[in-house]
Amino acid sequence: MSLEAKKRPHILTIAGSDSSGGAGIQADLKTIEAFGCHGSSVMTALTAQNTKGVQGVHEIPADFVIQQLKSVVSDDYPRCIKLGMLTNSSIILALSKELKKLDTIVVLDPVMISTSGHTLLPEDAIQAMNELYPLVDYFTPNIPEAIKLTGYSSRTSENSSQLNLEEMIELAKITNTKTRAFTVLLKGGHTSISGREILEIRKREKGDYEIFWEEGDDDLDTIEVLSLYSSYKQIPQSKQEEKELVVDVLVNKGEVVALFVGKKIDSNNTHGTGCTLSTAIACAHATQPRDVPNAILRIFKKAISYTKTAIASSYPFGHGHGPLNHAHLSVRRALPPPTKYNPHPFVSHLIQSNLPLWKSYVKHPFVVQLGKGTLPKECFEHYIKQDYHYLKHYARAHALGAYKASTFEDIKAFTDIAGHIARESEMHVSYCESFGISLDQLQSTPESAPCAAYARYVIDIGTQGDILDLYMSVASCLIGYGEVGLWLKKQVELGEAKMEGNLYKKWMEDYSGKDFLGAVERGIENLERRIAEDPPTEARLARLTAIWHECVRLESAFWDMGLNLIK
Ligand SMILES: Cc1ncc(COP(=O)(O)O)c(N)n1
């Protein structure tokens, strides 16, 4: 059986149709498709709608809603059911009766008012929702919806939606207790939270629950060359009072499980956000392997991240609140498209795909000792002689790239870097001179096994593969040395490493200098551009990632060689 012929998780959406394609059934089906699932739909209403508003609603009779449901379910049992706009109390009551008979995961997004301000659920239907809640696994109200359901009122603000973080947490817990829905995610998009509020909560809760910053890995802020999220995560003193963060609160059995924190995305294209998020939760649940640790957290992390990328990568449509980029395919292609908030999705993926391995390279004891100036001179001497050999092959790999290139742009890029590497080797020559090693002696030093292994691997991949493979095989050296240079510079500022009186000052200056970091930046941009122009299939991405891992491992072994004087 081919891969495509495999059974896909079945996600059923029970919701209203949005004629503009921005929300409801249309948003749901696009999201389901992007997750590689099969989407089926039961319509509760047809809306005449565009990005500016809802012009009309045609309700589907409750018995026909149930007929649709029975047709779908009797043929293929859904793994998850997502409930969106339920239109009126008779549909809600009829659905509650039917859903009780089904054993499936239920996600409820209580669609009450559209982004454009149109009421989509009458008052009496809100009452009827009480029948549904106990059947719900994941419930995703926003602040106005949760307030409406619980009668909560803010103690601190005139505008009822402008809650502070403490009030949000209280509201999320009350919503969970009142509805008895299994898990509640209170979406925080209607209010803004300051960094100080989060820091205070973190101090008070002493790690009782997780706080996730943005969609990335928590360790991302340690990656200097990308430094994507560090400004949000560290929250400099001057920024702590600014209310510019959005927090979603996840509660289970009346207790907070996690806070998801991110910077507010400045976009008018938010039509269909709730639909996409709730559907993404259903898909993330259905596609996640069973019995993984922290299953619920992973599901919400993935769904929130998916939705944020959908907003951040949205495109112009209509004249009001435009739609999200619902089907941005990040899950199926395994890589999100670049956005203002994450302009380096490919390099982030490479680094994050094995963070411990990456750290074993860029924070290797050789690097740490070099920064402190405590690295034995014979270790550095051995390393710099071998690195001189390595650079020659590294330059040859770039010359091979120029040979393989088919545009002048690529030929120029490769030859420029080869020239740059030749200049870099002058630093090695002058270090050796200062150690009393002549150029002749340097050139006739035998290549060590770790140097030969790494250099030949790069040349081998470059010869065997295409131009992207070649770029991949040279990338971890370029990006890694940039990371080491920047990290050491930061360590100097923190007093953990020193420049003055350090024998290795010139080395540190070169790799944290403008010239080298400019090359790193061009290298990263180049890789991202290639990937964005021709997004890789999963198999291709896996091969590229494997080359990256092998090079990172060989880089780490190269430092080992220096430290342990391996010949
Ligand atoms: C059919 C339908 N379902 C849901 C929504 C809510 O989406 P939004 O809050 O983005 O307007 C909508 N406007 N129309």
UniProtKB/TrEMBL annotation:
Protein name per its UniProtKB record: Phosphomethylpyrimidine kinase
Keywords, in A-Z order: Kinase, Transferase
PANTHER family linked to this entry: HYDROXYMETHYLPYRIMIDINE_PHOSPHOMETHYLPYRIMIDINE KINASE THI20-RELATED, PHOSPHOMETHYLPYRIMIDINE KINASE
Cellular compartments per GO CC: cytosol
Domain (Thiaminase-2/PQQC): residue spans on this chain: 356-564
Pfam families: Phos_pyr_kin, TENA_THI-4
InterPro entries, sorted: Haem_Oase-like_multi-hlx (IPR016084), HMP/HMP-P_kinase_dom (IPR004399), PM/HMP-P_kinase-1 (IPR013749), Ribokinase-like (IPR029056), Thiaminase-2/PQQC (IPR004305), Thiaminase_II (IPR027574)
Gene3D superfamilies named among the record's database cross-references: 3.40.1190.20, Heme oxygenase-like
Domain annotation Pyridoxamine kinase/Phosphomethylpyrimidine kinase: ranges: 18-197, 241-325
GO BP: any one term: thiamine biosynthetic process
A GO term, aspect molecular function: phosphomethylpyrimidine kinase activity
Highest taxon, organism lineage: Eukaryota
Keyword Kinase: yes
